[in-house]
Amino acid sequence: MHFTNRVAFALGTLLVVGWVAGPASADQATEGKAIFMQYCASCHGPRGAGNGPLAATLTMPPANLCLLSQRFGNPLPQDIMERFIDGRSDGKAHGPRDMPVWGERFYAESNGDAAEIKQRIAKLIAFLQSIQTATRSALLKLEEAAFAGDRIARAGLRNGFILPVEAR
What we know:
With 168 residues, this protein is mainly α. It has a domain at 24-137: Cytochrome Bc1 Complex, Chain D, domain 2 (Orthogonal Bundle), CATH 1.10.760. The chain has 8 helices and 2 strands; from the N terminus they run ααααααααββ. It has helices spanning 3-21, 26-39, 41-44, 68-72, 78-86, 102-109, 114-130, 150-155; strands at 157-158, 161-162. Strand 1 (157-158) and strand 2 form a beta hairpin. Helix 2 (26-39) packs across helix 7. The longest helix has 19 residues, at 3-21. The protein is globular and about 35 Å long. The chain starts with a helix and ends in a 6-residue tail after the last strand.
């Protein structure tokens, strides 16, 4: 498949997936804020800026969650956020995991109801999405492109982003 066709196919697939899944509702974000205030605000602060009352006592300062989209793109990738919150992603490449593994806590509180855990985390991610201040899209970020490789490198890159044909 030609490179341009791959890009068009990948973007089309992402748009369809986004359309089917749909954006998080305002209710989800509101419910997610309540979850955030209960479990996360003590470290990350009430607005997610990393300045909660316990932040100064931690070895590693909490992340400014308003800036997640600078790193992961906007909208936030649900699967990556889920994996970090529930503990499946331990972030070894970025040092020790100081954040609690909320999947275990949610599992205990829900008596092992997987659907409830997933819903709770989805609401939390909806809230995190609602507080993002960055607008960069990660759809074509090099490390996230499914077809990254020599063809992309030959197509023209600048700072890890695929350049449009006009900019090459």
